[in-house]
Amino acid sequence: MAQAATAGGVTATGDTHATSSFGALFLGAIGVVFGDIGTSPLYAMKEAFSGAHPLPVDRMHVLGVTSLVFWTVLTVVTVKYVAIIMRADNRGEGGSLSLLALLQKAVADRPGLLALVGTLGIFAAALFYGDAAITPAISVLSAVEGLRVVRPELSPFILPLAVVIMLVLFSIQSHGTAALGAMFGIITLAWFVVLAVLGVRGIVQAPGVLAALSPHYAIAFLLHDGWIGFLALGSAVLAVTGAEALYADMGHFGRLPIRLGWSLIVWPALILNYLGQGALLLTNPAAAANPFFLMAPGWAGMPLLILATCATIIAAQAVITGAFSVTRQAMQLGYLPRMEVVHTSERERGQIYMPFVNWTLMLAVIALVLGFGSSTSLAAAYGVAVTGTMVITTILVSLLAWHVWGWRSRFAWALMGLFLVVEAAYFLATATKITHGGWFPLAAGAGIYLVLTTWKQGRRLMQERQKDDALPLEQFLCSVSERVVRVPGTAVFLTSASADDVPMSLLHNLKHNHVLHERVVVLTVVTDESPRVCQSRRLRSQAVRPDVFRITIHYGFMEDPDIPKALANARLSELGFDYEPMRTSYFLTRETVIAAREPGMPMWRERLFAFLTRTATTKADFFHLPLNRVVEMGGHVEI
Questions:
Q1: What are residue 177's phi and psi, to 5 degrees?
Q2: Residues of the chain with pLDDT under 70
Q3: Tell me: the pLDDT tens digits for 166-189?
Q4: Burial class (CB in 10 A: 0-12, 13-18, 19+), 636
């Protein structure tokens, strides 16, 4: 599941892609959006017949599992995501946080439903981080494990090689992926062509596998095997890992390139390959140990291994980039503290690098590779995060369909109910593996959820305390003595509270320095619940007095806040004064949070919030303020 991943050189918003041609967007979508789901054939069928709950390799079970995979991909990906969920765009953007922001506006007048939507949306985002650690680990491991088939004598080097690949992959993130991005689409397109060719080769040898296209075999398999068949759902769902990326990456590539890429290339290639693996198992049950690699002719073993490794690296890259994007969205929406964001491309705004996220994710991935040791062990952990996110997405989109789209017909609700029942069954099947590794994404999701909600609630409490102690701006201006010394230049005082109140930094500056600048600006940055804000809505200025201004700057949750740039781009009529960068100083308040036994959060959560505030990147860096024009004033806030 790659959330909001970005290909180098390919960035777009919604369905209006001025920066890239349709061909570039189409190829970019092939390389980034489908990297995760495109590598599922490496392990999905293998886990059904040689995983934690192996099935007998006979005709009934082979046709049953192949049919189950086919109808799962058709129902979950083609119908649910491509046909329905991709309609739920927030000004062109997709993904769990975009959906959350969109739905929160629709149910803002219903507090109970709003709380439920917020909880589900945040937990879906939290589950993504567990998924983001597992995806690179299982993808690369499943490819490198092909050495057991191609060169069995090199089997002891599987884990070291996987770790080396991870080290190299995460080490190059700071340089950006623009240079590699151009190759992503070509390599992944070649991968899908190979998947289709191998699949057709297998089908020709055992055409009887085409019977699996009938849902009869999937139903008969589940009814015949009972509990074991139910557990097999946990393997079948691996075929749709990465489906969430179709929705999450919509803002970067648009609906049409993703829908065409899926319908014309990816879906046919995947289905042909799964049918080909099923055909191989019908003729050679011993191939269950690794049907993907054993499906290829002997001479193609090593080239296929190299291509598979490249494809899984691309899939891992998409998830890593997605982790950067989701983290930035969470920061802008107020769910995470400020972190360092490095732009790695001058042309593409989606190309970012976040050091803390990168190295934390690398340690988690390597720990998973060494701790689980094989793709089979990791598969148990993988399905829980994927199915949990799918269930949450279905619930949120169902609410959106009711409140925004006006879907009130019985057919519409029967369809959404079908999705929910199917995905709930998959989740329950994977939940049986919690003790075998499924605990990891749940534990990671719970931990991230705790951090996200603690930061959001802590910021709210802190702003309430500041509001209680604040002095209204008009009252302050009336009380300021005419004898206060006025010094040349413009002073910009940043505040995260209401622009109607006096910033703490302004009070401290007057208290300690006994001066006011000839022009005072009280500035507030607001993040809207939309991905981007058009230039005409960027800045609002109000003159409180001829020498005092309130300014509010609006950004979308996908945008990078740059205060000097916003002020410089504003017209004189918008600002109300002449902005001179070299005669402007920025005054910030560095708040020190003190956990107090007051009504609010439990003490341990208040201490966690205080720790998070200490680790946050400075406001000067986050808002791109010139450091030689910044003055910081200290302050204490008890929550």
A1: -115, 15
A2: 1-20, 177-182, 345-350, 481, 497-499, 598
A3: 999 899 888 776 556 567 888 999
A4: exposed
Tokens for 580, please give them: 């001179």
Strands 630-638 and 584-594: parallel
Cα 115 from Cα 328, distance rounded (Å): 23
Looking at residue 90, the DSSP 8-state letter turns out to be B
Q: Cα(61)–Cα(423) distance, rounded to whole angstroms?
A: 21
> Is 138:315 a contact under the CB 8 Å cutoff?
no
Q: In 325-440, where do the E strands start and end?
A: 342-343, 352-353
**68: nearest Cα among 206, 192, 239, 286:** 239
Q: Which two tokens stand for residue 116?
A: 């439920």
Would you give the distance in Å from CA 383 to the centre of its chain?
17
CA 382 – CA 174 distance, rounded (Å) = 27
CATH 1.20.1740.10 fits 22-437, yes or no: yes
Report how far residue 211's alpha carbon sits from residue 60's, in angstroms, rounded to the nearest whole number: 11
What residue spans define the domains of the chain?
Answer: 22-437, 472-638
**What string of DSSP letters covers 258-295?**
HHHHIIIIIHHHHHHHHHHHHHHHHH-GGGGGSHHHHT
pTM: 0.83
